[in-house]
Amino acid sequence: MSKSKIETKHKKSSQTKILKGRLDISRSGMGFVIVEGSETDVMVKPHNFGKAFHGDTVRVQVDKETGAGKRSEGIVIDVAERKQTEFIGTLEVNKNVAFFIAASEKPVPDFYIATEKLNGAVDGSRVVARLVRWDKNDKKPQGEIVNILSAKNESDMAMKEILIDAGFPLSFEEAVLKEANSLSPKITREEEKKRKDCRDILTFTIDPADAKDFDDALSIRNLDNGNYEIGIHIADVSHFVKTDSILDKAAYARATSVYLPDRVNPMLPEKISNELCSLRPNEDKYTFSVILQITNRGEIKHKWIGRTLIHSNHRFTYEEVQEIIETQDGLHDKPVLLLNGLAQGFRQERFKNGAINFSSQEVRFKLAEDGTPLGIVIKESKEAHQLVEEFMLLANRTVAEYVSKIKSNKEPIPFPYRIHDTPSEEKLLPFAAFARKFGYTFDMKNELEVATSFNKLLKEVKGKPEQHVLEQLGIRTMAKAVYTSANIGHYGLGFENYCHFTSPIRRYPDVMVHRIVQECLDKDLKIDKKMEEKCKHCSDRERGAMEAERAGNKYKQVEYMKQFLGEDFEAIISGVSAFGFWAETAEHKCEGLVSVRDLNEFDDFRLD
Fold first, then answer.
1. What is the mean pLDDT of residues 174-200?
2. Residue 483 has pLDDT above 50, yes or no
């Protein structure tokens, strides 16, 4: 979609100040462009929004300068990036004219819908409309109906609203699907010559039972020198998704797949995620691999990174691998047990070097065919999960270390590192004071001691009533991990260099990493001057996905708990405020607010 521009009657001069930022429209209808790095934002009146919607990244021309610390006024002159292209609302049809009216807290103009773009919708239909274009001289944007919502299935409608409100389209445009469907899985002679052939080596995947997009596999073989060759093989998405292609632009806009309780909203069309790139058993596949020579003590003697061909021999579920670990028996038991032994060694070494062992409890839902929740299961991280996790961490770290040594004109090359800053003292001090009330001490002399104290606390608190609240508060003291080209290391993992390489089917930064690594290997670097902008976009989309996933889980929890209205449950207080407290049920991890006004029968309620 081309960028939208508007004409202004203000002539640009050498003194014209144009800033870039995110447009935030308040409930009153006034807009504010939030400019990164600036202490003040730029106020924009509704008639100066141009063709921008709430959340769009825009360029704003500052029209009125004000004094230091005061708000300037401006006019939106250009939409650099749309946050949202699909909206939920109602269709109004009058004779041969149709308009879409968005159901949004923020002002959204009505869309004109051409008759051939109704796609079966009729007057009064609850629909999803996609913005198609908004030309310079058009008063209203043009749209098309892409989904008709059924009032009979409230849960389905709620999940779709969650995705759209977070800025994730429900479907791919026809041009994207056409490009995906034109791609061939055939292994060509030309590609065979370029790649290391690993198809004769024992290889398998380990994934959840309901997974369809297998983007990583492990291979193992014994070497004559007594060492092991371990291959960490990742789906070669960049072989199919070329830079600046229609597919690439669609993937970048989403930047991540979104996992809701009853569906996956994929970053890439299913033709790619579940077919071409999925490392399914008994199929030859294109992969990008990290191959390591490792001793039986876990020492890494040699590293190799490059494009490969693999043939997965088996598709394991986590449950199957866990059973092999616990019983020491099963299909491919020796290689599985060997990999697990190495993984546990890597894990212990990480914690010794300052990694923090946070393990928040995740909920999963047992669902009926119509999406109705039948039960809630607390997901446990067992050794089978840790086996995969440790080798993925190792691959990510190996790739980041390799790229960190590459220079262009004696400068580090732009690269999407995954960084995690150290926790601030401002957040640590109240947490340490709170932990002391339960008898836990906290050493804050240096970063390593902080990590050691966290791990000691997390180990000692296991199984105790205060476990959940301390784990959650501990996580909140941490900085958020983000993507950036400014590498400061990953505090939580204890790594100096780290990136995301292992999930390109569902994360766009991994696709960028694959491309840059191949450029380094080919000695054909293309310096990306927009890398930091791309990193910020991916971090923003990741936050949006996490918020959508939390909202989806909350909705399903409420839906599930409706059947227990009036019943009592054992719960743990998970948060306190002046107007009440939050309590989380011990069995289902469902959280709700208990208001102060509902505490009349209790003698005392104090907020310390």
1. 97
2. yes
- Please say whether the beta carbons of 77 and 5 come within 8 A: yes
388: which residues sit within 8 A by CB, 6+ positions away? 206, 216, 218, 318
Q: Looking at residues 362-385, what average pLDDT do you find?
A: 91
Tokens of residue 574, six digits: 């998970």
With beta carbons less than 8 A apart as the criterion, state whether 84 and 164 touch: yes
3-state SS track over 343-382: HHHHHHHHHHCCCCCCCCCEEEEEECCCCCEEEEEEECCC
Helix (H, G, I), strand (E, B) or coil at 565: coil
* Exposed / middle / buried, residue 394 (Cβ in 10 Å: 0-12, 13-18, 19+): buried
**329: Cβ–Cβ under 8 A, 6 or more apart, which residues?**
none
| 89-149 and 17-81 share a CATH fold | yes
Whether pLDDT at 92 is above 90: yes
Q: Dihedral through CA 397, CA 398, CA 403, CA 405, nearest 10?
A: 100
* Residue % of the chain over a pLDDT of 90: 74
What is the CB-side half-sphere exposure of residue 584 using CA atoms within 13 A? 16
What's 443's DSSP letter? -
Going from the C-alpha of 167 to that of each of 45, 58, 176, 464, 602, the distances in angstroms are: 24, 16, 18, 40, 44
Backbone angles phi, psi at 150, to 5 degrees: -100, 125
Distance CA 528, CA 412 (A): 12
CA-based torsion, 414, 416, 417, 419: positive or negative: positive
Q: What is the pLDDT of residues 298-313, one digit of tens each?
A: 999 999 999 999 999 9
Residue 67, pLDDT above cutoff 80? no
* Residue 257 CB contacts under 8 Å (≥ 6 apart), including other chains: 264, 265, 266, 267, 273, 505, 506, 507, 545
pLDDT score for 600: 65
- Residues 383-400 have a mean pLDDT of 98
Q: What is the pLDDT of residues 432-448, one digit of tens each?
A: 999 999 999 888 888 88
Cβ atoms 228, 305 nearer than 8 A: no
Structure confidence by residue, pLDDT tens digits, 247-295: 999 999 999 999 999 999 999 999 999 999 999 999 999 999 999 999 9
The architecture of the domain spanning 89-149 is Beta Barrel (2.40)
H helix and E strand count, the chain: 14, 28
Q: State yes or no: pLDDT of 412 exceeds 90.
A: yes
Q: Where are the domains of the chain?
A: 17-81, 89-149, 179-418+487-552, 422-478, 568-598
Other Cβ atoms within 10 Å of 229 Cβ, number: 17
Single-letter residue type at 64: K
3-state secondary structure of 322: helix
Separation of alpha carbons 294 and 342, rounded Å: 9
Q: Say if CB 43 and CB 31 are below 8 A apart.
A: yes
What's the pLDDT band for 2 if we cut at 50, 70, 90?
very low
State the architecture of 17-81 in CATH terms: Beta Barrel (2.40)
Nearest-angstrom CA–CA distance, 99 and 92: 5
* pTM confidence score: 0.89
| Whether pLDDT at 10 is above 90 | no
Please compute, for residue 593, the number of CA atoms within 13 A of its CA located in the half-sphere on the CB side.
7
User: In sequence order, which ranges of 411-507 are alpha helices (DSSP H)?
Assistant: 425-436, 447-460, 467-477
